[in-house]
Amino acid sequence: QVQLVESGGGLVQPGGSLRLSCAASGSIFSITYMGWYRQAPGKERELVATITRTGSTNVADSVKGRFTISGDNAKNTVYLQMNSLKPEDTAVYYCKTRSWAGMDYWGKGTLVTVSS
Q1: What is the H or E stretch that residue 22 is in?
Q2: CA nearest 46: which of 1, 91, 110, 103?
Q3: Parallel, antiparallel, or unpaired: how do β-strands 10-12 and 110-114 relate?
Q4: pLDDT in tens, 56-82
Q5: What is the dihedral of CA 68, 69, 72, 78, to 10 degrees?
Q6: Fewest CB atoms within 10 Å of the CB: 8, 34, 44, 109?
């Protein structure tokens, strides 16, 4: 099993920045990719960005150019740098990983609120 712990959420003004972190522990060797998803009030959970072990990234069009995903394999940690934040970025942000066996693991989420 893999355990994921997110951190870094909070309240930020429009145009501001935040960096989210997701630390993985447990069966790290089984991870194929890690990613960030978000769920806004009343909406479905959506993909934000993913990164593979080799560093290949995929970023949703809605945040492309503003959000950057990166990873530190030595620390088993993935980051989401969020710049130029908008009120519509307000959501609970979840970290997710998938193992070689196809099992999905989720963190508990961290709340990001963009408001003046």
Answers
A1: strand 18-26
A2: 91
A3: parallel
A4: 999 999 999 999 999 998 889 999 999
A5: 130
A6: 44
